[in-house]
Specification:
Number of strands: 14
Number of domains: 2
Radius of gyration: 25 Å
CATH architecture of the largest domain: 3-Layer(aba) Sandwich
Structural class: alpha/beta
Distance between the termini: 63 Å
CATH class of the largest domain: Alpha Beta
Strand content: 25-35%
Largest sheet: 6 strands, mixed
Number of helices: 12
CATH superfamily of the largest domain: P-loop containing nucleotide triphosphate hydrolases
Length: 342
């Protein structure tokens, strides 16, 4: 298990990582997700002991990485965002050098290097100078060095950068296979990457943890089970009153003026029955439904909602309450905007 407790990093007066805490369980693939500049790489560098923290603790399998860095680092395989390769070395030569640094004995060294090259698809490149490799192959060599020494924990920072789509698929499959013998932290800003391989997600923004849960739980926590997008011709106040009287229907998060007496409403609903009830009641009220579609909340919705909020850790419920307040304000002011357009 990896335990991260109240971890903070200051660069001068700039607070890059702010008192974050989370755990990574054994044989789990944890996605560490955030926009560029959120503090992901800084956190990974502190977790691996590459960068000292300003305060807080990182415990690797019961070992404090600051108090006993040598023992803690033996348990970690690290692929930083920029692979730590030497361009003037050949691939096999470089991997042998890294294996020696990691203390892999001569008898096991060749076996581990061959296995790592096989898994990353670089056996045909073993005699090539690293400087002559493409960016994607250099990335694979960097990944291979992380596997040497059979580390219990793998920390991968943007592992598919520079890879083509086929290579990305291969690496994602490899990461899932590695779960059998390793615990993996996968840091990325690519949503598809996280969804494809991770068991749990930690979302970071402005150096703070904004969410920590499974993808399924996060998706179901934002905006109800479904989002209904419905274009209606009819008096806007009548539409809002009609929908507002239906259980399981929230205040519209967005109302878009289309033309006189026609608006598109974006509404969170509890499920399919609420959708049917909205359509039925609007028709009964004499409103004409022009278009209707439903969308299930996705990890992208969660990511956008949590990373576009102001700095400050808040629960999802608090964020949703803020959205509802803003929606009320927008509804009150939309009538004035419509009058101006007329």
């Amino acid at each position: 298990m990896i335990e991260i407790k109240n971890l903070t990093k200051l660069y001068g007066s700039n607070l890059a990582v702010k008192n974050i805490s989370f755990n990574v369980r054994d044989n789990e693939i944890l996605g560490f997700l955030g926009p560029n500049g959120a503090g992901k790489s800084t956190t990974m560098n502190m977790v691996t002991g590459y960068l000292p923290s300003t305060s807080g603790k990182v415990i690797i399998n019961g070992i404090d990485i600051e108090e006993n860095p040598s023992e803690a680092k033996k348990l970690i395989g690290y692929l930083p965002e920029i692979p730590p390769v030497y361009p003037d070395m050949r691939v096999y030569e470089y991997l042998s050098f890294v294996a020696g640094i990691k203390g892999v004995s001569g008898g096991k060294r060749k076996e581990q290097i061959e296995n790592a090259m096989e898994r990353l698809g670089i056996k045909d490149m073993k005699k090539r100078l690293i400087r002559n490799l493409s960016k994607g192959y250099r990335q694979r060599v960097g990944f291979a060095q992380a596997l040497l020494g059979s580390p219990k924990f793998l920390i991968l920072d943007e592992p598919t950068v520079g890879l083509d789509p086929n290579q990305v698929m291969e690496v994602r499959k490899l990461i899932k296979d590695l779960k059998k013998d390793h615990t993996v932290i996968l840091s990325s800003h690519i949503l598809q990457e996280i969804q494809a391989v991770c068991d749990r997600v930690v979302i970071i923004s402005h150096g703070e943890i904004r969410a920590d849960d499974t993808i399924e739980n996060l998706e179901s926590s934002v905006g109800g089970d479904l989002t209904l997008i419905i274009k209606v011709k009819g008096n806007k106040d009548k539409v809002l009153i009609t929908m507002g009287a239906i259980p399981g229907v929230s205040i519209p998060s967005d109302i878009t003026y289309v033309e006189t007496n026609v608006h598109t409403y974006t509404v969170s609903i509890a499920g399919e029955e609420a959708r049917k009830e909205i359509i039925s009641r609007l028709v009964t009220a004499g409103c004409e439904i022009i278009e209707v579609s439903t969308v299930k909340s996705s990890l992208e919705d969660v990511f956008v909602k949590l990373t576009t909020q102001n700095s400050g850790k808040k629960g999802l419920r608090a964020l949703l309450d803020e959205d509802e307040s803003e929606a009320e304000f927008n509804i009150d002011n939309d009538a004035a905007s419509e009058e101006e357009e007329k």
